[in-house]
Amino acid sequence: MNFRWIWFIAARYIFRKQKKSPSPVFSILGIATGVFALIVIIAVMNGFQLGFIESILEISSYHLRVGSLTSAGAEEAAAVPADVLLTVPGVEAAVPFQEFQALVRGRRGGQQAAVVRGLPANVLVQDAVMAGRLVFEEGSFDLNDKRNVLLGAELARRLGVKAGEEITLFSIPSIFSAADDDDEAGLLTFIITGVFRTGFYEYDTGWAFVNIESAAAFCDTGPALGIKLKNRFHDQRMLELVQKKLEEHGGFENAELSSWRDYNRSFFGALRTEKLFMFILVGLIFIVVGLNIYQSQRRAVLEHREEIGLLRAIGGGERAVRLIFVCDGAIIGFTGAVSGLILGLLIASNIPLFFTVMENVVNFFIHIVNIIANIFRVGDIGGFAFFSPAVFYIKEIPSRIIPQEAALIFMFGFLSALLAAWFASRKVARILVAEVLRYE
Question: Residue 112 in contact with residue 206, Cβ under 8 Å?
C-alpha cells in the first residue's frame, strides 16, 4: 500500500478549511490542554509526595531496618554489623540509632513531647543523603559532645528557645516508672547546637537528635540499625542479602528485619491511591476530547462522501480510505500531545517562577484597585499570595517530573485521538460507491 497519497489527502483535510465540521484546531487545543494540565498537576503532586516520602525514608525510617541489637553489648553489637553490611552490594549506608519518647522543656517553661533519636557524631559522613535533607536555620550539626542536642525549627519555636540555650529532656517511660530510682537516667540537660528544618512538619515540630551514647541512658534496649540502599525499590531482594550476611556474621540470626514498605504501608498506600484517582479524574479530559474528535471525524466522513466514493472508484481500497481519517487523528493527537508536553514540561520545571509571575500580575491589578480606592477614601485590599507562609507550611511549590509518567501522559493524549479517529472511520465501510456517484 502506498501511504504517500494517504498522508497527502489526510493533511489536506486537516489544513483545508472545512465546510461544516469544527476546525481541527479545537481538537488539537483540547489534547494539548489535557496533556499540559495532567503533566503539571502530576509533577506538583510528585513534588509534595516524594518530598514527604524522602523525608520519612532519609531521616526517620530508612530503607531497611534491623531491630534492636542486644546480643553482645550496645557498642559492639551496633558497630560490627554496620561495617559488615556495608560490604553487601547495593547498601549505601548503615547507621546505628536509638530512639525514645521524651518530654522536652525549655528554660522559659515551654514543654512538649517529642521523639528523640540518638545518632553517631559522624552520621553525616556515614549518611550523606541525610545531610542534604537537614537545613539548619541556626547552628550546625554537632553531636560531638554527649550534652549536645539538635531541635526541629517548629519545636524550638514552641519551646521559645534558640541555639546556644539549654533544654531538659525527661524520659517519658521513666516519668511513669515507679521502679526507676535513678533520677539522672530520666532527666538530663542538653545544649542546643543546631535548629534544623526538614520541610516535613511532623519532624520539624516533634523531633530532636542527640548523641547515641546519651540516648543509651534513656533506653533499656540496644541500638537498632538503619540501612540506606542505592535503590530503595530493590528492598525485597536486599532483605534476603542482608539476612544472609547477618547469618554469616553470627549472633544476629534472629534479628528482626523490615522494609520501608512494611512500616509505612498505610501512608504510602494512601499517597499512591490519591495520585491514581487524581490521574483518573484529570484524565477524563482525554475522554471528552476523544468524543469530540470522534464526532468531528464522523461528520468529516459524511462531508467527504463524494470524494470517498471517487477514491474508491479509482482503486482506493476501503482500508486505505479509512487510513486517511486515522491519519487525521494521528496528526491531531501528535500535534496536540507534543504541544501540551512541551508547555507542561516548561511550566512544571519552573513552577515557583510561574506562580511568582501570576502573583505579580494579580498584585499589579490589586495595586491599581488600591489607587482608585484611595481616591475615594475606601480601604485598601491586601496583597495576594497563592501559598502564604503564614497559612501554609511551604515556602514554594515543589515539582518533580518523572520521565516515565510524562511519556505515559503523552501516549494517552496521542492514543485518545488515534482511537477516536479509528472508530469514526468505520463509517467509511457503509458508504456505497454506486449510490454516491449515481448523480455525479
Answer: yes
d(Cα 102, Cα 323) in Å, to the nearest integer? 71
Contact call for residues 325 and 301 (beta carbons, < 8 A): yes
Q: Convert the pLDDT of each residue in 24-81 to its tens digit.
A: 788 888 889 889 988 998 898 888 888 888 888 888 888 888 876 554 444 444 445 7
Are 222 and 27 in contact by the 8 Å Cβ rule? The answer is no
Q: What is the pLDDT of residue 172?
A: 63
Examine the domain organization and report whether 250 and 102 are in the same domain. Answer: yes
Q: Give the list of residues 6+ apart from residue 187 with CB closer than 8 angstroms, or none.
A: 168, 169, 170, 171, 174
C-alpha cell at 251: 549472633
Domain termination residue (choose one: 255, 278, 309): 255
Neighbours of 286 (CB within 10 A): 24
Q: Are strands 166-171 and 257-259 parallel, antiparallel or unpaired?
A: unpaired
Domain that holds residue 393: 4-52+268-436
Identify whether 57 is part of a domain: no
Summarize pLDDT for 316-328 with one digit per residue, the tens. Answer: 677 777 788 788 8
Q: Which secondary structure element, helix H or strand E, spans residue 381, and what is its range?
A: none
The pLDDT of residue 339 is: 93
Q: What is each CA distance from 83 to 96, 149, 167, 219, 245, in whole angstroms? A: 11, 26, 34, 23, 11
Last residue of a domain, one of 223, 255, 287: 255
Residue pair 15/327 in contact by the 8 Å Cβ criterion: no
Q: For the chain, what is the domain count?
A: 2
- Percent of the chain with pLDDT strictly greater than 70: 81
Contacts of 260 (CB under 8 A, 6+ apart): 56, 57, 61, 62, 63, 64, 232, 235
